[in-house]
Amino acid sequence: MSTEDTPKDYSESPINLEYFYTAGSATTRFLNQVKEGNIVGQGCPKCKAVYVPPRGSCPRCGVATDIEVPLTDKGCIESFTVVHIPIPGNPIVPPYVCAMIRLDGANISFLHLIQDVDIENIRIGMRIQAVWKPKEEWTHSLENIKWFAPIDEPDVDVATLRFQES
Amino acid sequence: MKRVAIVGYAQHPILKNAGALNEVELIMPVVHQLFNDLGISQKDIDFTCSGSCDYLQGAAFAFVEGLSAIQTNPPIKESHVEMDAAWAMYESMLKIQMGDAETALIYGFGKSSPGDLDAIISLQMDPYYISPLWPDRVSLAALQARVLLDQNVITSEQMLASVIEARANSKNNKNALITDLIDEADYLKNEMVSSPLNKLDCPPISDGSSAMIIASEEKAYEFTDHPIWIEGIDHRIESSNLGSRNLATSDTLQASMNQLNLKNIKFDVAELHTQFSHELPFLKSLLNLQDVPTNLSGGPLVGNVMMCAGLDAIGKTYESLKDNQFTHGLAHATSGPCLQHNMLVHLETQK
């Protein structure tokens, strides 16, 4: 029994759950290609939208994205933010840039880093290309791409990237 | 009350471990099958409601991802319950009663294989006094089984019979996970998981999904010539404080039976969401189903998809009425520890 005089006014009950996470069969196909240095999106058989990374279905149509669509590692910045606040455990030193990357031929964007450029020069619509890790470090992850870096091509008007229903 | 009917139901084969298939990949086939069977599409659905548990996936708002299995363009009206999809069906029923919808798609999904189900389910308990003790679902069920045995509400022979019958009935269910027959000797060979429950008294860890479509009287006949009517539906919950409940009976189930006027109805079939062997004889006695063929699908003991098994009880009752030209069916869904929260659904074939 406790001999404390003051009543306890709180107690901690930490929760820790462990899961065996599976990516899904569509994302598994995608990650197997990423391990080989290829970016293969998946297309909707109905509306033809191309998803990268694919999650297994077209959320517009509710059908499986069973069309494999090989893509390049080039695209543009759809949106970005400059991170000034250090995140515990994150090895990247602020300030750095996170951007939504829209690959050419894809209809959705994904989050990745932008480097090799002065932060004040980064803008929406800027053309970029993946900078890959050495091949021997490739694994089942988009971290095979170290970051995206600007390339010498004219900017894109992102408004033109809006999905057009066919 | 507006008359509402079940017009279709589909169930994914229950899997021990769906492996690489994610939740969306489990949901899509059943929804597509249902639409194909009825010759309709999402455009014919006024309201969509799902039941699932984010803790099973271990991701906040995981249920939103589930919507990727549904056609959401043009935009749809939808909702979700963090409960068994039987309650998604209840919400859909209300939506139709309110005149906000004539048709509803309900789906439930759950993968229990990726996580530790015992730990996950203990988080549904009262977070101050019970969850921090991490009581596992089998021990909680065992608590009630012990009370029922000690007070002679049920016998251990009845528990054994539940297990043997469930296996035998699994032949009626093409989606059952466990189909091998057992005898008393096999049963007694198993060690206790939590006395008085041994491994075979408990449901298998299961992955899967199910979907159902309900419709108002005006719409039901557009979808099918054989709608099965939801004659009555009622659900009630007991205290979250286990110590204040009488585990040997259920006043709330009694109240539901009275509300639905079940006393004088001769049921042809019943499907009960009885996850543990002792729950079957207990509920059969409470619900006066002693002479009614019950859990002809094998029930949760041969496949227990979390967040689906309650909807499956309703779906299996629907199938049973439709396939056998029965008149009255009773379905039961439950949630919470020791049958805390129960729903009864009285289904009836058109006279």
TrEMBL record, chain A:
Residues 35-64 form the ChsH2 rubredoxin-like zinc ribbon domain. InterPro entries: ChsH2_C, ChsH2_Znr, NA-bd_OB-fold, Thioester_dehydratase-like. Residues 68-133 form the ChsH2 C-terminal OB-fold domain. It comes from the Bacteria. It holds the Pfam family OB_ChsH2_C. This is PF01796 domain protein.
TrEMBL record, chain B:
GO terms for molecular function: acetyl-CoA C-acyltransferase activity. It comes from the Bacteria. InterPro entries: Thiolase (IPR002155), Thiolase-like (IPR016039). This is Nonspecific lipid transfer family protein. It comes from SAR86 cluster bacterium SAR86E.
